[in-house]
Amino acid sequence: MKSFIEYSPNTDFPIENLPYGVFTSSKNAENHIGAAIGEWILDLNVISHLFTGPLLKDKQLVFKEGKLNSFMGLTRSHWIEARSTIQSLLDVSNATLQNDAGLRERAFIKQSEAKMQVPADIGDYSDFYSSIHHATNVGIMFRGKENALPPNWKHIPIGYHGRCSSIVVSGTPIHRPYGQTLPVDGAEPHFGPCRLMDFELEMACFVGGPPTRLGERVTAKQAEERLFGFVLMNDWSARDIQKWEYVPLGPFTAKNVGTSVSPWVVTVEALRPYIVDNYPQDQPPFPYLRHDDKFNFDIKLEVDLKPETSPVATTISRSNYRFLYWTVKQQLAQQTVTGCNLRPGDLLGSGTISGDTSDSYGSMLELSWKGTKPLRLLNGEERKFLQDGDTITLRGYCLSENGVRIGFGSCEGKLLPAVPFQE
């Protein structure tokens, strides 16, 4: 498979990837759906008439929408046909697009000239707690080694419903939040700017397929028909606010300050060659959570921290999606076991992804071990938690033996000072 669009062998977006996104540009003031190929975006709005396969010939209007929800709301068979159509149109042996100069001019735009948007209208967002290394680390810090994992952790994918209105696309700055904290145990609470601001290295999966009815369940064995594709996610966390507020109901304002996602949705089909063994589960799950097939992925993950005062970024973490104990199929099964209904564009966050070594932890909380082991950056500065002006950049990619790279682009956000509170 070779594209007539030339690109670097190191690109995140070869013809084997073709992730979906939503963008505006000088050519289109309104949102258009596109697919990334090298440094370019193929505008699917412009070429919607070329989706002439048996499933999509009557569904071409989904590519005229301003978000991906309608396309996500089709079936996995539709998604596979769409991917095959785009690959065929970009193939060097296909003249349809390649030799139509006028259509090519309208259909391609440089990524550098586009403004990316959140790819879907996210109606619901759940964040899980699926990395055993992260859960163990946090448990050791706050409960001790003997009680690191709560009794339910290996029986149930733990999660909470997040605030979808504050999910933002990569590049959107985040302000340090105000909130209540308890600086000294046993003292009175304090109100003011968060002092322990953190990032969380996560990935998230967009739900697809037709909406389900209230009361309808989706088991882990059925879940693949409902999984559209993945993005990088940084679930910004105010640790001191979280510590004071999370008992007894869990995260609230410490997490709704902002959640950053990368703009390109990498499909399950693009990731399929990189499937690896599921993480061993030593406690057999209940039947609704079981699936016999492999559905874990070798996605290499990196986190950079760049201070505002430095031109140099420091890679502070290298982790991998394969460290997740609970698969996304199990996460979806848990979400729906009560009969909770699904809608296209719903988002499932993985939870912080930490590996088994100290340089693979997915948060400052772990990397600095609750502030007791400051990180030294390349410019000589140290960090226990994030400082105003720091930019956090997440990257993720798969790499085949023959050098094909399936990447997610980047998920970037800069921490700005708190907005003064007016009483």
Automatic annotation (TrEMBL):
TM spans (from-to): none
Keyword field: Calcium, Hydrolase, Magnesium, Metal-binding, Phenylalanine catabolism, Tyrosine catabolism
Fumarylacetoacetase-like C-terminal domain span: 127-412
Domain called Fumarylacetoacetase N-terminal: residue spans: 16-119
Highest taxon of source: Eukaryota
Enzyme class: hydrolase
Gene3D superfamilies: Fumarylacetoacetase, N-terminal domain, Fumarylacetoacetase-like, C-terminal domain
Stored SUPFAM superfamilies: FAH (SSF56529), Fumarylacetoacetate hydrolase, FAH, N-terminal domain (SSF63433)
Cofactor(s) of this protein: Mg(2+); Ca(2+)
The enzyme's E.C. designation: 3.7.1.2
Pfam families, per database record: FAA_hydrolase (PF01557), FAA_hydrolase_N (PF09298)
Pathway assignment: Amino-acid degradation; L-phenylalanine degradation; acetoacetate and fumarate from L-phenylalanine: step 6/6
Stored PANTHER family: FUMARYLACETOACETASE (PTHR43069)
Family of the protein in this entry: Belongs to the FAH family.
UniProt name for this protein: Fumarylacetoacetase
